[in-house]
Amino acid sequence: DTGVSQNPRHKITKRGQNVTFRCDPISEHNRLYWYRQTLGQGPEFLTYFQNEAQLEKSRLLSDRFSAERPKGSFSTLEIQRTEQGDSAMYLCASRLAGGQETQYFGPGTRLLVL
Amino acid sequence: AQKVTQAQTEISVVEKEDVTLDCVYETRDTTYYLFWYKQPPSGELVFLIRRNSFDEQNEISGRYSWNFQKSTSSFNFTITASQVVDSAVYFCALSESPGGGTSYGKLTFGQGTILTVHP
To answer: What is the 3-state secondary structure (H, E, C) of chain A?
Structure first.
C-alpha cells in the first residue's frame, strides 16, 4: 500500500515564473486536500476535492493559484506569476470517504521563489 | 471559527524524561475530530491519533498517551520515557464533522511544538 506521493520534492524558481506541483493520493482515496505550510507555522488549508470536483477553496487561494483533479485521481496545483511570499511547503493529503477517516499526508513540495 | 492553540513553542528534555505537549481548541461544532501529527525533519506529517468529540476515553499506545478533556477543550499528548527519535515538531489539529453542511473535514492546525530530546 503506497502512501501519498508528491512531485517535485523541491522547486526553486524566479519571481514571475509559473510552477506546477503534482499529488498522487492513496489509490482508493477519493478525497484530496492541499495545504500550505510556511516556516514555523502549522499547515493551512488551501483547497479540497471530492473525486474530480473542487468543493472548497480557502481565501488563501488567490487568483494566481489553480488546482485540478482530472478524472478524480492525481491532482495538480499551479501557481502563476510566483511571488516571494509563495515560498512555502505545499502539502497534499488524501482520505477515504466517510465521516471519520483520517487524512494522510504526502512528503510535500518545498518551493523557494527567488 | 475553529482555532487550535499550542502554547508551547519549544520543549527540550533529556532522554527518558516524560514530556507533555498541550493542545487547546475552540469550536462551535458539537461533532468534531481531534488529531495529533508528528513532523520529523524530513517534513512529512505522520498521523499519530484521531479522537472524535463523543469519545473522551484516554488512550495509550506504547510510550504515547493522550488525555482528552471536553470540559477544558484540551487534548494533551504525553510521551513517556522520551527517546532521541521523538525529536520532531508535533501538531494538534481539529476538523469539523465532514458529514454535514458545507464542511468537508479540512484540518485546522495549531502552530506546533518543537520537541528536542537530548541524549
So the answer is: CCCCEEECCEEEECCCCCEEEEEECCCCCCEEEEEEECCCCCCEEEEEEECCEEEEECCCCCCCEEEECHHHCCEEEEECCCCHHHCEEEEEEEECCCCCCCCEECCCEEEEEC
* Subunit contact A105:B44, Cβ cutoff 8 A: yes
Q: Express each pLDDT in A74-105 by its tens digit.
A: 999 999 999 999 999 999 999 987 766 789 99
Give the number of beta-carbon pairs within 8 Å between A and B.
62
**Cβ neighbours of residue A75 closer than 8 Å, sequence gap 6 or more:** A22, A23, A25, A32, A34, A49, A67, A68, A69, A92
Interface of B with A in 77-106 (CB under 8 A): 91, 93, 97-99, 102, 104-106
Mean pLDDT of B28-47: 92
- Residue pair B68/B56 in contact (Cβ under 8 Å)? The answer is yes
Residues of chain A with pLDDT under 70: 1, 99-100
